[in-house]
User: Which sequence fits this backbone?
């Protein structure tokens, strides 16, 4: 695609989803920014480095997934394609502070959220706007279309698959029950897909506890006595006021349900919620009603599933502790940390700098305490056998994983440069 105004004035030319054919031009820069020597060494040595009494084990699936690589690649291509244009980004390209900081250094301006969408007031027709890997709501997309700016869409294909599922639910008269975080960009974008149909409805549940509230309401409405005291209609609407579509009514819109999920949630919980809601509908109205009024599909992305499976496989080995590297607002990283914390002391760090070598300390986010940040010192024993497991969320570059490994070695008195 040409950069000329004549070519960027048509709708086809102002929407880009397949990049600009500049992958070769950005490859070296991306490699320099995000590769890691120690990670390459771990891969080459069966995901294990052993130096003296210190063993570092890396989960076999970790870090950047295809969707993230594609999003970052396209953002870099966009900067090369439009060197003289103003380039905006709707939120963060991915939930990783280093990648986003790099884009800021490249002159990309980050748009801030405003209510349920982003504030596009700075954007004008000649500008370029990059859509993040999470996607944007249909309202945001239409706003950008109306502005006439160039749109570079990096929305992950796995997210698009969920959108298609939710759109079909809305078309067929099913309320989309979405396992996700109502405030997350991806979930907001997914939920907005129901608005393509006049009577489309959605309800977002954060976890099984909130799904239980939905199931209790369904069973109570059917005249059954659920295992927990069901919420009244008013209490239900208040509880889910920020996670439900406009006009949602539990007395009307829990009759036909289609289950979907934010792609980065804990996979086993998403599957369990889908199965449990289906069972509740069968108890309330019978199997024939469930067959006609309930749908569910596994919409967890394969990369999320692979990383969760890999960390569970790693947990079968004896580990003294786990380090999980990734942004504190990265949902898939939080899910990985939660899995690890069930079995072994786990430290979710946003940045390798959170490992303080001179103080033998670590700044980390506690999963069990509402994600409060804490500091522990001393952190590691400086002698004796130690096995440390490492993994990272899908938005974490390899170089940051490698830096975390290097800092663990340094606390143990091992020069990372000597690990060859």
Assistant:
């Amino acid at each position: 695609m040409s950069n000329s105004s004549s070519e960027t004035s048509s709708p086809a030319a102002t929407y880009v989803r397949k990049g600009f054919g500049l992958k070769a031009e950005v490859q070296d820069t991306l490699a320099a920014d995000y590769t890691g020597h120690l990670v390459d060494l771990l891969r080459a040595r069966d995901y294990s480095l052993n130096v003296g009494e210190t063993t570092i084990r890396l989960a076999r699936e970790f870090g950047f997934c295809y969707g993230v690589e594609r999003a970052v690649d396209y953002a870099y291509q966009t900067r090369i394609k439009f060197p003289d244009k103003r380039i905006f980004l709707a939120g963060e390209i991915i939930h990783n502070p280093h990648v986003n900081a790099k884009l800021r250094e490249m002159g990309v301006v980050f748009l801030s959220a405003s209510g349920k969408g982003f504030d596009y007031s700075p954007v004008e027709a000649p500008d370029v706007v990059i859509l993040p890997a999470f996607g944007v709501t249909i309202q945001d997309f239409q706003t950008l279309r109306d502005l006439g700016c160039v749109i570079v869409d990096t929305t992950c294909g796995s997210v698009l698959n969920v959108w298609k599922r939710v759109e079909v639910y809305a078309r067929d008269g099913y309320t989309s029950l979405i396992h996700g975080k109502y405030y997350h960009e991806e979930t907001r974008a997914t939920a907005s897909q129901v608005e393509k149909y006049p009577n489309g409805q959605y309800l977002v549940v954060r976890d099984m506890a909130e799904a239980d509230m939905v199931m209790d309401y369904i069973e109570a409405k059917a005249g059954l006595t659920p295992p927990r005291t069901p919420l009244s209609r008013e209490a239900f609407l208040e509880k889910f006021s920020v996670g439900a579509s406009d006009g949602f009514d539990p007395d009307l819109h829990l009759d036909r349900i289609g289950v979907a999920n934010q792609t980065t949630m804990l996979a086993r919980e998403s599957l369990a919620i889908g199965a449990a809601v289906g069972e509740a509908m069968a108890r309330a109205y019978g199997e024939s009603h469930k067959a006609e009024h309930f749908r569910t599909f596994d919409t967890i992305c394969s990369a999320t599933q692979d990383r969760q499976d890999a960390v569970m496989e790693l947990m079968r080995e004896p580990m003294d502790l786990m380090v999980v590297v990734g942004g504190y607002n990265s949902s898939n990283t939080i899910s990985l940390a939660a899995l690890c914390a069930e079995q072994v002391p786990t430290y979710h760090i946003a940045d390798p700098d959170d490992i303080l070598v001179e103080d033998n300390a670590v700044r980390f986010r506690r999963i069990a305490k509402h994600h409060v940040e804490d500091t522990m010192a001393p952190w590691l024993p400086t002698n004796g056998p130690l096995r440390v497991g490492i993994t990272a969320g899908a938005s974490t570059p390899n170089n940051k994983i490698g830096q975390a490994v290097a800092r663990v070695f340094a606390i143990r008195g091992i020069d990372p440069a000597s690990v060859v």
